[in-house]
Amino acid sequence: MKILIINSGSSSIKYKLYETGDGGSYLADGIVAKIGEPGSYIRHNVRGHEIEYEVSVPNHSKGFELMIRLLTDPGYKILRNVSEIAAVGHRFVQGGGVFEESVLITEEVIKKMEEYVHLAPLHTPPNLIGIRETKKLMPDVPQVAVFDTFFHKDMPMKAYLYPMPLTYCTKYGIRKYGFHGTSFRYVSREASVMLGRPLNELKMILCHLGNGASISAFSNGRSVDTSMGLTPLEGLMMGTRTGDIDPGVVFYLSRELNMSIDEIDDLLNKKSGLLGISGLGNDMRSIIKKADEGDEKCNLAVEMYTYRVKKYIGAYIAVLGKLDALVFTAGVAENNPVIRAKICENLDYLGIEVDEEKNKRTVGVRGEISSERSAVRILVIPTDEEKVIALDTMRVCKLQ
Description:
By secondary structure, the chain is an alpha/beta fold. The chain contains 15 helices and 14 strands. Helix 1 packs across helix 3, helix 10 packs across helix 11 and helix 11 crosses helix 13 (337-344).
């Protein structure tokens, strides 16, 4: 039996197909990108054979049709038809404090999700579109929602509450929820295997550094703090997001520049971070290359990015009391030895020391990059969020 994993975004559909028979092995994956925009395209990969071409994708409905057409293309011998798909798993960013476990999607669940759209207005609407479009194409196939916020559900109140009138926090759900939970679930379990120690005995700092970025302080089997908050805007400097800033900046932009709330939202979420500082873009590889060539703005972007990650690591060591492992995952962290080295630079007094040669060799692959002297194990673990979603989908639909 096959399980299809969907991550439906505002202008893209990411998908991955798994076989359930051997614990969730990968069969195919791809992305329909720039939906509703000029230059829309689809990239489809089957066991290392990748194709990419531009195609008009005016809406998500067309995007899902294209995805199914490729998955059932007889030339790939992956699916004869959609009836072979046993279940569909959807990544959901925000569970709203209501959904703590992965759930079978029903009309009642959808209605409850719609009530909490305001907590993730950029993510939840396209997630819901993904459910509806999948249901049109596969009306009898069960669908499961897997929530990023699940990983952080046991954070203590002192960590997730904001210091504002408590009635606002409790009545309106204004609190830290945390994100990247499926990634953190995967890498924490894999770190436990690499370290040869039970998960509930470990104290780790998990760094998910991609276009979106966050850090989790993990202690004895649970997330005890994380950098993202009510929305994915809080925390680290990211590809296009500011991360932590003085909230007063919002008022200043409104009063002094006469910017609307929507304009400020767009500025902080889509035009800031690496893009805003470098003026080049949000691709870390390109920014590092330009920085090496002497571009001052790109160098500043790299320095700011790594400095802010380093600050959170220091804060979370204080929270944890001790540290067994520092784990790097996601695109930026997995593929950029320079970034990892800069983050860990001068942290040897905290027991964190990188082996330069190991670090250089570890690009896009799993490995340990800590030196023999390092008291803290430093791991690089490529994430596999889709596999976590696939396994949860199998469990909820009782396919195991």
